[in-house]
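Sequence in, structure out. Go.
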Amino acid sequence: MIQTFKAPTLRCRPLRAMTAGTGTHCPASGRWSPIGKVQDGQVFFEGSLMPSFDGAPVVWVLAPEADKH
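Output:
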C-alpha cells in the first residue's frame, strides 16, 4: 500500500497578532485596526509611520489574512 502525505502549509505571518503603536514604523503591509475597533481598519504599508486614531495614540493590530484556499 502506498501512502501519500500532504506537504505542510507554510505561514508567512506568526500565529500571534502583530501590533504596532502610534509613531512606530509599520512592520508589515496589510489592514490594521486600533485595538477594539476592528471596523475602523486602514491599510498601511511596511515602513510607514503608524498614525494616531481620533487624535490619540493607539496600538494597532494587523488583521489576519483571509484563508485563500
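Check: The beta strands are 19-21, 30-34, 42-44, 59-62. The longest strand covers residues 30-34.
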